[in-house]
Design goal:
This protein is an alpha/beta fold. Helices cover about 30% and strands about 25% of the residues. The protein binds beta-D-galactopyranuronic acid.
C-alpha cells in the first residue's frame, strides 16, 4: 500500500552509490542542484570568527549544568556580522554531545526547548535566534543578507543564511573542550526545520539532522503534497529561496529532484523527521513518504535505512531502528518536550 502511494507521486529516482567515496562525490552534485534550483548557492566560509563571553553562570539547574551567553562575530568578504548564542551544558567530567538549535526564541529555556530535560539526557544545547542573523522578510540590505551583494536568480535565500549561521555556531562549538564535536546535532522547527535540513546537507560535521514539522520545501515530498505547495510558499515567502525556484510553482513535476534528495544528503549520517497529526499544512503523509523514498541512500551504503512498516504510522509511533528516525505526534504544529524526548532517544541509539 505504501509502495503504491509512493509510486503515485512519480518522484525522480534517487541516485545512490555503494561506496562512501562515490557517494560523497554524488552527494556534492545533488547538493549543488538543490542549492542552484531551490535554496540558492552556498555562502562561502568566513574569513574569521571570534566569540566573546557576555554571561557565564557556573551553576544552573541545581548545579547540574552551566550557562553561557556569547556573542559570535563572523567576518566575511563583505564585512562583519555579530549574533548572540546561548548554551546550557551539563557539568560533566567528559565531553558531552550537543544540539545546535536554530530557534524562534532569544533565550533558553523557552516554550520549544526544555533545557533541563536535555541536560538530564546528558546533552548540551546551543541556541540562537534566527532573525539576529538576518530578518525574516524581503529586506536584503541588513544583517548577513546585507553583506552578500545583489540578489540574483540563484543567490541564497534566507533559509541558506540561517543555515550558514548554524554552521558558524558549529565552528565555535567544535573548538570547545567540553563538547564531543563528533556528536553534534542540528535542529529546527518549521521554517527552521527546512533550515536545519539544509545546514545538515551543507555541513557533514553535523552527526544528526533534525527536522521538526518542516513540511513544504523541507522534509515533505513536493509532488502530490497536500497543504502548502511551491506556489503558496514562493508567493508568501519568496525571500526564503533563490528567485529561480518560483519557476516550479504549480510545476512540481518539472523539478529535477524532490525533497527525498534533501533528506538523503544527510547520509551516511543520521536524520530525524517529526510530523504532527494536526498539521495538514506541512502534510505528515508527504513527510513520511519522503523518509521512505530517501532510505535507498543508506541502504546502498549497506547501512540501515528507514525501517518502515507497510503502512502509514499511527500517532506516537517512532522508528528508531534505522538511520532515519520518524515520529508522528498528536497535536498541532509545534516543537514540544515529547519531540525532544524522541530526538534524545534517537541520538542515543
Ligand atoms: C508557515 C509556512 C510554513 C512553515 C511555517 C513556520 O507559514 O507556510 O512553510 O515553515 O510558516 O515556519 O512556522
Amino acid at each position: 500500500m505504501l509502495k503504491e502511494l509512493l509510486n503515485s507521486r512519480k518522484i525522480p529516482p534517487l541516485p545512490v552509490a555503494s561506496s562512501l567515496e562515490e557517494w560523497e562525490a554524488l552527494r556534492q552534485k545533488l547538493l549543488h542542484t538543490l542549492c542552484w534550483e531551490e535554496y540558492g548557492t552556498p555562502i562561502p566560509e568566513p574569513e574569521a570568527l571570534t566569540a566573546q563571553v557576555l554571561e557565564y553562570k557556573p551553576r544552573c539547574f541545581g548545579g547540574k549544568a552551566f550557562f553561557t551567553r556569547i556573542q559570535l562575530t563572523v567576518k566575511i568578504a563583505g564585512g562583519e556580522i555579530s549574533f548572540p548564542v546561548e548554551a546550557v551544558i551539563p557539568n560533566s567530567a567528559k565531553p558531552v554531545p550537543a544540539f545546535i538549535s536554530i530557534s524562534f526564541y532569544s533565550h533558553i529555556p523557552n516554550f520549544s526547548l526544555p533545557a533541563e530535560e536535555v541536560i538530564d539526557g546528558g546533552f548540551g544545547v546551543f541556541s540562537f535566534h534566527y532573525t539576529d542573523v538576518t530578518t525574516d522578510d524581503n529586506d536584503f540590505s541588513t544583517g548577513l543578507a546585507g553583506l552578500l551583494g545583489s540578489r540574483e536568480e540563484h543567490s541564497p535565500g534566507k533559509l541558506a543564511m540561517w543555515a550558514w549561521a548554524a554552521m558558524r555556531v558549529m565552528d565555535y562549538v567544535q573548538e570547545l573542550s567540553y563538547i564531543d564535536s563528533r556528536r553534534v546535532a542540528v535542529l529546527g522547527h518549521s521554517r527552521l526545520g527546512k533550515t536545519a535540513l539544509l545546514a545538515g546537507a551543507l555541513d557533514t560535521r553535523f552527526a544528526l539532522v533534525i527536522s521538526n514539522d518542516s513540511g513544504s520545501c523541507g522534509a515533505a515530498l513536493s509532488r502530490g503534497k497536500e497543504g502548502e505547495d511551491i506556489d503558496h510558499i514562493t508567493e508568501e515567502f519568496p525571500f526564503w529561496f533563490c528567485p529561480a525556484y518560483r519557476q516550479y510553482a504549480k510545476k512540481e513535476e518539472e523539478l529535477p529532484f524532490d525533497q527525498h534528495f534533501m533528506l538523503a544528503l544527510s547520509a551516511p549520517r543520521k536524520v530525524y523527521v517529526c510530523s504532527a497529526q494536526e498539521d495538514p499544512w506541512a502534510d505528515p503523509v508527504s513527510e513520511f513518504l519522503c523518509c521512505v523514498a530517501a532510505s535507498p541512500a543508506w541502504e546502498a551504503l549497506s547501512l540501515p535505512g528507514f525501517s518502515s512498516p507497510d503502512q502509514l504510522p499511527a500517532t506516537g509511533d517512532a522508528f528508531h531502528e534505522g538511520s532515519i528516525g520518524y515520529h508522528l505526534r498528536a497535536g498541532g504544529h509545534d516543537l514540544i518536550r515529547e519531540d525532544w524526548q524522541k530526538f534524545i532517544a534517537f541520538f542515543r541509539s
